[in-house]
Amino acid sequence: MPKILVINPFPLDEAGVKRRAAQSAHVDLDPDTELVYRPVKIGPTSFMSPHDWLIMDLGIYEAGLTAEDEGFDAVVIDTMSDSGMAALRSVLSIPVVGPGKASMLHALTLGAKFSVLAQWKPALPRYAKVIRDYGFERQCASVRSFDVEPDFVNLTEGKEDETFPIMLEVAMQCVEEDGADVICLGSTTMHQAASYLAERLPVPLINPGPFSYKLAETLVGLGLSQSRRAYPAPTLRKDELVHRIAAAAARTG
Length: 253
Fold this sequence. Notes:
Strand order of the largest sheet: 2-1-3-4
Distance between the termini: 37 Å
Structural class: alpha/beta
Strand content: 5-15%
Number of strands: 8
Order of helices and strands: EHEHEHEHEHEHEHEHH
Radius of gyration: 17 Å
């Protein structure tokens, strides 16, 4: 029975984790596959600057570094930034999936160019960094924001009638004006809008969270994991140091 750890990138309460876990309704997994959602102990209050990215990398890494010892078969990172992915891949032998890279790569199996639908303008530098780091500049038709301030806890609950049509309008601009063949939702927090958009768009839509669950399940089934040549193991792991940093930061806020 595949057991997959899904790391939520913010220190969410039970209700917040439940909202994130609702992503599983958007994908058909094997009935024996188990998804376990775990929020980080520490994280930024927002996610717009290199300062925030550093803290998120550490929080996600700390939340996942014991996954293999705990009996998990794979790890999924619940953010399109793929925060902490490279570090976790260096210490775990089980597959670690980041929905950012996975979504963009697989968008290119469905079309020649993709666009990313971003939440709001302050987040655009983060997408530019990811696209540049992965070398997708030529295949990325655009990154467009529908410019609604994100709510990382409540997501789009209660704002569907107002927000979903705006998202559709911007996604259509990606298709009609920018030439996108595929749309990637720019955040796993947008999963509530996926069905609405997919039914109305003339091109495929990739919902990154559910997509990454299915990819993780597939990698486990195929016996595949990240290359140790690409993600070399550290000469000396500092697990206890990382746990102490996270525990102290969580206590002090």
